[in-house]
Amino acid sequence: MNIVHVLLGGFVVLLFHIFNVLILKPKSLRRKLQRQGIEGPFPHFYYGNIPEMKRLKLQLHSTTTTTTQDKENHDVCVSHTWLSTLFPHIQKWTKQYGPMYLFSSGKIQWLMVSDIEMVKQIIMYTSSNLGKPSYLSKDMGPLLGQGIFSSNGTIWAHQRKIIAPELYLNKVKAMVNLIVESTNIMLRSWETRLQSEGGVSEIKVDEDLRSLSADIISRACFGSNYVEGKEIFTKLRDVQRALSTIYVGIPGFRYLPTRNNQEIWRLEKEINSKILTLINKRMKETQEQDLLQMILKGAKNCEGSDGPSSSPISRDRFMIDNCKNIFFAGYETTAITASWCLMLLALHQDWQDRVRAEVLQVCGSDPPNADMLRSLKVVCFTHYDLELNISNLSCNCITLSD
């Protein structure tokens, strides 16, 4: 009889916990913002606003038709209004509820801020009270783990103390020669292809720029070349693709043995194993003073947790997660930015001519170095203008529940 009472009590506690997570807590958070005049679409108790987001995207794809006939008669046009194409729900809800509104993704409550001045204030807010949402280390755990991009509290402070000095300006300047060397290898491969194919060749620039970005990160941060880290980069990208097909915040979904989840689990194990192999190899070799070596040293004093509900991070987990964060963040963002810059320069011949003339004037026949970069005014302005255009189109999302 006592066992029955215990099981019944446990079942009641479980039901209350589920009721609190799915209904009470989200409703409480939404009421707090609604009292401040912030509204949003009404969510489903389990899926949140995910069904409506899916519906809007399918509706957009069904109404948007691309005509391929007489394609050569039309000028190439690049639209900067990518936000409405990729995230139609943002455009719809912004018109309906204003520049600040609330929506849900499963149990996660999101505060969407599309007012640029408010976004700037949020970015400038440096207090650790804002913190990182827990979905980064849970739903996105296979990609980010408890690395510097997803951790909080003492672990984050310890990671930042280790990693930030390695990315100071004087350290980055020392990497310029390495960056030039890797870039020259890529350019020579393009020239070789053009010569072998009679002066005309189809080159997938974005793929080559990803390889270039990976090679630079491997050399600068981990003391290895792209060949050694190629499988890690490839598998990280595969994990990213797999995670992009799921919606974060749906309770319990990441534990289900679906085909996609099983693929993610398999890739995560392989990535962790390969990073550990890279780490063990470094430990046996000459100790180079690069970012990897600083991570290895910092792992000796890594015991801690993100908060009272988090378990301590192990030494191996500390090393693996931070390596994954550096591999992924630098690799993907750098390659995408470089691809976008080259595409815009290709579309705007006048700016391409100005940039080329300035580089030839400042650098001549010599490879660029850190001192030359400050004299490249047009190049810096072009990069700043690109960042400004992207920031003006961006929104900022804050998660309100963990």
From TrEMBL:
Sorted keywords for this record are: Heme, Iron, Membrane, Metal-binding, Monooxygenase, Oxidoreductase, Transmembrane, Transmembrane helix
Give its localization: Membrane
The protein's name: Putative cytochrome P450
Pfam families per the record? p450
Q: Where do the TM regions start and end?
A: 6-24
Recorded superkingdom: Eukaryota
Q: Known InterPro entries for this protein?
A: Cyt_P450 (IPR001128), Cyt_P450_E_grp-I (IPR002401), Cyt_P450_sf (IPR036396), Cytochrome_P450_Monooxygen (IPR050665)
Family the UniProt entry places it in = Belongs to the cytochrome P450 family.
Q: What is its main location?
A: membrane
Originating organism: Lupinus albus (White lupine)
Q: Kindly give the membrane topology term recorded for this protein.
A: Single-pass membrane protein
Q: One MF term in GO for this entry?
A: heme binding
GO CC terms of this entry: membrane
